Amino acid sequence: MKIIHTADWHLGQTFYGYDRSREHAVFLDWLCSVIKDTGSELLLIAGDIFDSPNPSAEAQRMFYTFLTKVTAENPHLQVIITAGNHDSAARLEAPNSLLGVFNTNVSGIVHYIDGKIEYDRMIIPLKNGGCCLAVPYLRHNDLPEADTYSDGVAMLYNELYNIARAKGYYPIIAMGHLQASGAEVSVGDSSEYVIIGGMEGIDSRFANDGIAYTALGHLHKAQRVARRENIRYSGAPLPMSFAERNNTQGVTQIIINGDDCIVEKIVFDVPVKLKSIPAKPEPIENVLKALADLPAGELNDNSPYLEVNVLVRAVDPTLRQQIEDAIVGKAVRLVRIQATSENTQTEQRHSQMTYDDFKRKDPSEIVQDIYKKQCGEDMPEYLADKLNEIIKGIYNEDIGN
Questions:
Q1: Beta bridge partners of 337
Q2: Is the Cβ–Cβ distance between 67 and 104 less than 8 Å?
Q3: 328 partner at 20 to 30 Å CA-CA among 154, 212, 240, 347?
Q4: Tens-place pLDDT, residues 224-283
Q5: DSSP secondary structure letters along 351-383
Q6: What is the rounded distance in angstroms from the CA atom of residue 216 to the CA atom of residue 45?
Q7: How far is CA 147 from CA 198, 200, 296, 357, 395, in A?
């Protein structure tokens, strides 16, 4: 069985004001070709199809045009889609009866009957006798009662697996949109975090060893989880921020033959690159020299997005104008100037924390930073352990409510 796993398209995203519809269209055309060339029988899209719960008409048109095209060109293809945290689960699932004509199934919501989870609705039969556990992004009230959020997720997957096994399905494939514990988030990228401090991290053991492959979405960097080759994030097809500029974009191909599972990355050459010049902040004179070395050319739809990193010694109102003058005649689109003070480390310790900074901070780290500033030394280990116990207890109590 040949499978293509993808996720985190974020259709409708704008990048510092630039519409990315053409970039997404290039990706979707490429994906159609990959599916046809590889003879894939199953397409798994693991959440965050759209960038917003209220996607534009153009983003929705692009999505449904793709589904129409890919299923028409590949009549044997089955498509299974799960909702991500960026999607409107109800909106995504609404046309399910119509999409069934195209051999497409969407799992957006955890359904209930008489207060009990309707597990069967998340078990999608496959043509080869197997099934897919199509689990959407899970909110606290979607889970069975458990001590922790992570335990609740594991219980839900285990129950699905047990039901599928009892019905004789083989092989069993799973999907999810979550942050697995130990998985790598792009450095400096807050777009992948959902809960403060990354406390959404799910123990990788939620995926039963009997599951042939687990297709994950949410983290934008393609990677395996807990060194298990058959639990993977496919990664986003386009870099969503400059923190992701060095990621390798594409989709994951899976070939399941009996008990064997072969996994391979298929690389997508993104049409618009992201450039950071220089790679680390440098004085403006060095920056201007680096910009002067950029090749000359006319701007077009494929011109890279440019981030300029400057190390500043004092406020300079001419900074932006100097940079804009330096890139005249260069085939780049300036989208961001990242100005960093020479005293950044000192300033960061004493400056007001921004909302994005706060989202990236673990509560324990914040308290320990305050302790160090007040006492002039690191928090003792026994106090740090007690602090983590208290934070975990508060978090678990919140889940229970």
A1: 308
A2: yes
A3: 240
A4: 998 899 999 999 999 999 999 999 999 999 999 999 999 999 999 999 999 999 999 999
A5: SPPPHHHHHHS-HHHHHHHHHHHHHSSPPPHHH
A6: 9
A7: 18, 14, 60, 29, 10
CA distances from 351 to 315, 344, 373 (A): 17, 10, 13
Interior/surface letters 23-36, b for 16+ CB within 10 angstroms, e for the rest: bbebbbebbbebbe
pTM listed for this prediction:
0.83
Closest CA to 59 of 107, 109, 24: 24
What are the φ and ψ backbone dihedral angles of 365, each rounded to 5 degrees?
Answer: -65, -40
Q: What is the per-residue pLDDT across 164-179, written as a single tens digit (0 to 9) for each?
A: 999 999 999 999 999 9
- Rounded distance, CA 290 to CA 306, Å? 12
Tell me what pLDDT residue 77 has: 97
Place of tokens 């704008």: 14
Dihedral angle over CA of 137, 84, 78, 162, nearest 10? -10
